[in-house]
Amino acid sequence: MKLGFSAEDEAFRAEAADWLQGQMAGEFRDIVGIPNLVSKVERRKEWERQLAAHQWSCIGWPVEWGGRDATLAQQVIFAEEYARAGAPNRINHIGVELAGPTILAFGTQEQKARYLPGIAGGTQIWCQGYSEPNAGSDLANVKTKAHLEGNEWVVTGQKVWTSLAHFSDYIFVVARSEEGSKGPKGLSFLLMAMDQPGIEVRPIRQMNGEAEFNETFLDAARCPADAMLGERGQGWGVAMALLGFERGVSTLAQQMQFRNELDAVIEAARANGKANDPVTRQKIARAEIGLNLMRYGALRMLSNADAAGLDGAALTYKIQWATWRRDLGELAMEVLGQAGEIAAGEAYEWSLLPNTFLFSRSDTIYGGTNQIQRNLIAERGLGLPREPRGNS
Amino acid sequence: MKLGFSAEDEAFRAEAADWLQGQMAGEFRDIVGIPNLVSKVERRKEWERQLAAHQWSCIGWPVEWGGRDATLAQQVIFAEEYARAGAPNRINHIGVELAGPTILAFGTQEQKARYLPGIAGGTQIWCQGYSEPNAGSDLANVKTKAHLEGNEWVVTGQKVWTSLAHFSDYIFVVARSEEGSKGPKGLSFLLMAMDQPGIEVRPIRQMNGEAEFNETFLDAARCPADAMLGERGQGWGVAMALLGFERGVSTLAQQMQFRNELDAVIEAARANGKANDPVTRQKIARAEIGLNLMRYGALRMLSNADAAGLDGAALTYKIQWATWRRDLGELAMEVLGQAGEIAAGEAYEWSLLPNTFLFSRSDTIYGGTNQIQRNLIAERGLGLPREPRGNS
Amino acid sequence: MEFAFTEEQAMIAQTVQTFFAENATSERTRAAMEAGGIDRELWASFCEELGLSGIGIAEEDGGVGLGMVELAIVAEAAGSQVSAIPLLGLATAGQAIAAGGNIAQKEQWLGPLISGEAIAAAAYAPALKVEGGRLSGTVPFVAHGSLADLFVFVGEDAAWLVAAEDAGLSVVSHTTMDQTRPLATVTLEGANAQALNFAPAREALHAGGWICLAAEALGGAQATLDRTVQYSTERMQFGRPIGSFQAYKHRLADMMVLIEQARSAVYWAACAVDEGAPEAQLALHSAKSFCADTYFECAGHMIQLHGGIGFTWEHDAHLFFKRATSIRSMMGDGDWHREQVARLTIGEAS
Amino acid sequence: MEFAFTEEQAMIAQTVQTFFAENATSERTRAAMEAGGIDRELWASFCEELGLSGIGIAEEDGGVGLGMVELAIVAEAAGSQVSAIPLLGLATAGQAIAAGGNIAQKEQWLGPLISGEAIAAAAYAPALKVEGGRLSGTVPFVAHGSLADLFVFVGEDAAWLVAAEDAGLSVVSHTTMDQTRPLATVTLEGANAQALNFAPAREALHAGGWICLAAEALGGAQATLDRTVQYSTERMQFGRPIGSFQAYKHRLADMMVLIEQARSAVYWAACAVDEGAPEAQLALHSAKSFCADTYFECAGHMIQLHGGIGFTWEHDAHLFFKRATSIRSMMGDGDWHREQVARLTIGEAS
């Protein structure tokens, strides 16, 4: 058990920090520290291409696909230095962190060659087509249908909560390819281009006033027959494996964002004197402790990643961070007081902390609500009986 | 809507206060302020006979059965003055507050004449035979059996958590009188004398070191055929109606005990300086608010008692007080610090606050766990679907 | 001692609940959010047709008498629909003028306030300085401040009444998280101030405001519960209504436990004020802090238990959530009110 | 960077878990509760057979080397059985002597402590006064104080070692809520004190003690979860195992979420101390406060989820609950540790 980094690791850190800071102080200084995922999209695409050009786009991937085969320690270091330099959140995080690793795990050599360069190269943005209006917590209740027509899959249905769909190039879609099938059986995992007449995207405005999520309507949308990942009818397994990648190194990048948010709370408390209030200090301390335990939980989870089976720390991670961030949002508003309820300008647009307060209400819902997480923990982590399905 | 008392009520208050304070300063000063239910039993029986002799034993009952037909306001006042005078908790509270009202509601004239004078007169102590080892949360799963032999019921089975059984004269037993019946159907409600060879009581030691609860073994225990309250096989309805009386005026007496406990916490905080700590002050304020809301919830519940159906405030009362007291116990230990973990003498016996801390862990369990309470609130109060039974 | 509505109170409750349910619809509230945070038509109907805007103001002053219990009944009903009306201004400034105004002030202002011709706003304003009857300074976070015709400001040892048309007064409105009751910043530069009788004005303003907010919170919390219960019987997942899942049911039960306590708190405080009970201050601080927290908790649960649609703009859940957020921070946050409870219970910290 | 047990650490973990599970049975613990709060045979086996009592003490001082990670592994296993052994005294006093003792002190005491011949206790003792090498004053709440052969006391700017046999020292034992680690009051009247090197002694005592308590709490919390999961599959109500009810399952899930964080906390702190990381103090305060709260929460859930039998003397649930209670208040309560975290994060309050 060891937390410190080796001299070799520290050399890697120096290299990464040097390059990242140079970029953020130079050519890309106009996009330093953007927290959301929807602004300055074009410039951020340029930045992601720049990362790729210098082989920093997906360092954990194999060298042959544009990565560096980086060790866990190196990935941890890169995430830290990326955040420290103020580089913006990855606009293609779904491609780099979810689609890419899943294609690496399940794709044929031909599929890898077709999709990975676009992801690694920062030229193709991806989004995720899982949830449907009646398949939310009950994710396996997918109604979107796919059937083969010649050498193409034809897909019809409706996806919802498709984050970033409005500027994505590809979407992976879980669709029912086997007629008459029910639940997790008979689903297939398809990789589809967004730019086609059969796909329409309508933004969903959230309570914070922004629209990061979308409804995606598929009306005889098409993709090649061989744009299926894994076996036909076995898409559920691929879909679940992909969710496992959500608990990968990307959690560390996310934590850097959380660190910024907590630091902003502390700064606000210092500025208005709440930092002297013992009750507030207790709450800030709890947030500080919680953030550190997330960090060390993630390191534990990543260090044990080779161990077989789902580790406890990994199963509990989603509810942990979502709850932490929701609580941080509440604390932020307590610290800010009424000032936190006033927008800077005329538009209904929120600065970092009020936005965290509002947006974090969705954190405990998307990607599996806190209730679904507790089911998973109890059933998979503790072996308790499964929740019975009703008859319908 | 009115909280204040009329001049007539205040005159009643003066009379009650005068008598109670006189007693507690005089003949019964040796039993002032005993919080538990198990010490100085004989003297307390004398006190309860004294209450009866002066018609203060059960003032809400009809005059013909030893009461005063007191109004709600008078009952509220009496509960307040009883506590203010430091009179000890009623050892026969199950008789006076549960058995008595149930007999008044369901008993024949003959049954009333047989049982009520002993309760009102303070000469017969009662206990409650509901729970069994396999009928806890699932209370209707009673296995204790009763069958008629001549003009007697013969009862065999095991009851558990029978509070005060070791010095009770009577027990009311929910038993399965109809062979082959299941669940709430086929149960009968029997009133049985404790002093007979077929009944054996074994105390259960609790985590606080005391033994207020018991196991009660019935081995061909007997009672007359007409010692059944309500109809044969309809005992569940009687049993549930009795539980309704738990939310009666007796809640006010209980709240006076809670007031003493909170006052003790405040006194301890003043004594050791914690009263100056802003974090502790917040917690004490929450307890103070919670206690007041219990009081006004109880008054609301009692003022609406004539309204048909179960009122929301009544349904939520049990979980509210049980949770409040558990939290108060935790707060008490935080305020006391390590000093709270040391007993006064060599015996494993606890003073007021540490005892509250330990004993309150059973408050959220007996009489329906917090989980069962939430089921009741959701199903009866909000009309949500019932929890499905399994197959067994 | 009878802690239940009288027949008259029950009738008022039914009337106002129906009025707000029928008129303060989501569509109208959303239109008001785009129009400065007020549904003027609704407010006019409330004042003119319902005739309850004079609650808590004596009949000789043009009011309808009655008291804080009836004010709470109204605010509870208004809150249950997140109505975009300047009720809080009336409950604070109106009460302050009725209790601390002289005859001329009452005659000038109470009639127009009760009829709805004039809108009032009030704020705690410790930073204001007075010199020769002229007020200067900045007052932030004035609820519905950009709509007000009249302001009541309460300082540390004085209270003033200022007309919005005063040349020395200017208002900047803000885009506010809760768009149904936006905040404004009022700047005074030698504005002409009429003094109110400080102690009674402040006391009445606090009682009216805290009860109004607590009762709004109660009504809002009950609405989040009712709407979520409704949703839970309609929405199916895993082949069952989601309201049949025990974890879901228990969350709803927890909401009800809080709400029933909030109900006791509101009407305890209202009764205690009406009866001049010594525990009135304890009750007011308890009600404001407990009800605001309850509303916030319940509105959060409403979002969570609605899943994805719960955090969309289209769904009403966020209206409740944002109103709850604003009630929490308005007129003293929870920690402050609890510290007042601690002072009353334990005494000052040394 | 490899935040997982080495093979050696995994082996130690397995060994000590087996040892305590087999030997620190409920029967033996209950016997120890009636016998002053120690299972002497268990402690002797631990020190002599297992050979892990020298953990964290250098081999040249008679220890077995290794560090806080291994100490945590041992304390976690001991805590999971609520073992009645003076491990905390060793983790505090032993570490303090190893870090702040001179050669003579180490030679005199470390051997007997490691072999189990001598038992140590330690306490924060700001009220002690020293005059000419003689200590006077009262030290309350000394864990296992009535069994100790040796005391380490830490004042505000000095630390001392006092032998229990010193004529100037007397001990009064107390009936304590947690009977597996009773508290005593030690009174000193001119007792002969040997000074330790203050700063390193205090630092080592704190690190050893906080890690020991946090790890005990982790082990205890995990045991409450494991035992409740076990019970939930056996106990039937309503014709179903109670562990099939969603509200019950979710409570167990909440326990697991806390416990996994507690596990991260313990080993983060232990690693940080072993590696001399600058964040070691932050980690220690985090671990002590978080793990103690987690244990208390989980032990409370254990009682609740066992229903009636959960609050009986006969069932083990109260042993966990009382140990959790004592860990919470021992060596700084949660509020104090969190205030230290706040100082490290925000700075001093002004």
Automatic annotation (TrEMBL), chains A, B:
<dbReference type="Pfam" id="PF00441">
    <property type="entry name" value="Acyl-CoA_dh_1"/>
</dbReference>
<dbReference type="GO" id="GO:0005886">
    <property type="term" value="C:plasma membrane"/>
</dbReference>
<dbReference type="Pfam" id="PF02771">
    <property type="entry name" value="Acyl-CoA_dh_N"/>
</dbReference>
<dbReference type="GO" id="GO:0050660">
    <property type="term" value="F:flavin adenine dinucleotide binding"/>
</dbReference>
<dbReference type="Pfam" id="PF02770">
    <property type="entry name" value="Acyl-CoA_dh_M"/>
</dbReference>
<dbReference type="InterPro" id="IPR013786">
    <property type="entry name" value="AcylCoA_DH/ox_N"/>
</dbReference>
<dbReference type="InterPro" id="IPR052161">
    <property type="entry name" value="Mycobact_Acyl-CoA_DH"/>
</dbReference>
<dbReference type="InterPro" id="IPR036250">
    <property type="entry name" value="AcylCo_DH-like_C"/>
</dbReference>
<feature type="domain" description="Acyl-CoA dehydrogenase/oxidase C-terminal">
    <location>
        <begin position="233"/>
        <end position="381"/>
    </location>
</feature>
<keyword id="KW-0274">FAD</keyword>
<dbReference type="GO" id="GO:0016627">
    <property type="term" value="F:oxidoreductase activity, acting on the CH-CH group of donors"/>
</dbReference>
<feature type="domain" description="Acyl-CoA dehydrogenase/oxidase N-terminal">
    <location>
        <begin position="7"/>
        <end position="122"/>
    </location>
</feature>
<dbReference type="InterPro" id="IPR009075">
    <property type="entry name" value="AcylCo_DH/oxidase_C"/>
</dbReference>
<dbReference type="InterPro" id="IPR037069">
    <property type="entry name" value="AcylCoA_DH/ox_N_sf"/>
</dbReference>
<comment type="similarity">
    <text>Belongs to the acyl-CoA dehydrogenase family.</text>
</comment>
<keyword id="KW-0560">Oxidoreductase</keyword>
<dbReference type="InterPro" id="IPR006091">
    <property type="entry name" value="Acyl-CoA_Oxase/DH_mid-dom"/>
</dbReference>
<keyword id="KW-0285">Flavoprotein</keyword>
<protein>
    <submittedName>
        <fullName>Acyl-CoA dehydrogenase</fullName>
    </submittedName>
</protein>
<dbReference type="InterPro" id="IPR009100">
    <property type="entry name" value="AcylCoA_DH/oxidase_NM_dom_sf"/>
</dbReference>
<dbReference type="InterPro" id="IPR046373">
    <property type="entry name" value="Acyl-CoA_Oxase/DH_mid-dom_sf"/>
</dbReference>
<feature type="domain" description="Acyl-CoA oxidase/dehydrogenase middle">
    <location>
        <begin position="127"/>
        <end position="209"/>
    </location>
</feature>
From TrEMBL, chains C, D:
<dbReference type="GO" id="GO:0050660">
    <property type="term" value="F:flavin adenine dinucleotide binding"/>
</dbReference>
<dbReference type="InterPro" id="IPR036250">
    <property type="entry name" value="AcylCo_DH-like_C"/>
</dbReference>
<keyword id="KW-0274">FAD</keyword>
<keyword id="KW-0560">Oxidoreductase</keyword>
<dbReference type="InterPro" id="IPR009075">
    <property type="entry name" value="AcylCo_DH/oxidase_C"/>
</dbReference>
<dbReference type="Pfam" id="PF02771">
    <property type="entry name" value="Acyl-CoA_dh_N"/>
</dbReference>
<protein>
    <submittedName>
        <fullName>Acyl-CoA dehydrogenase</fullName>
    </submittedName>
</protein>
<dbReference type="InterPro" id="IPR013786">
    <property type="entry name" value="AcylCoA_DH/ox_N"/>
</dbReference>
<feature type="domain" description="Acyl-CoA dehydrogenase/oxidase N-terminal">
    <location>
        <begin position="6"/>
        <end position="117"/>
    </location>
</feature>
<comment type="similarity">
    <text>Belongs to the acyl-CoA dehydrogenase family.</text>
</comment>
<dbReference type="InterPro" id="IPR037069">
    <property type="entry name" value="AcylCoA_DH/ox_N_sf"/>
</dbReference>
<feature type="domain" description="Acyl-CoA dehydrogenase/oxidase C-terminal">
    <location>
        <begin position="211"/>
        <end position="343"/>
    </location>
</feature>
<keyword id="KW-0285">Flavoprotein</keyword>
<dbReference type="InterPro" id="IPR046373">
    <property type="entry name" value="Acyl-CoA_Oxase/DH_mid-dom_sf"/>
</dbReference>
<dbReference type="InterPro" id="IPR009100">
    <property type="entry name" value="AcylCoA_DH/oxidase_NM_dom_sf"/>
</dbReference>
<dbReference type="Pfam" id="PF00441">
    <property type="entry name" value="Acyl-CoA_dh_1"/>
</dbReference>
<dbReference type="GO" id="GO:0003995">
    <property type="term" value="F:acyl-CoA dehydrogenase activity"/>
</dbReference>
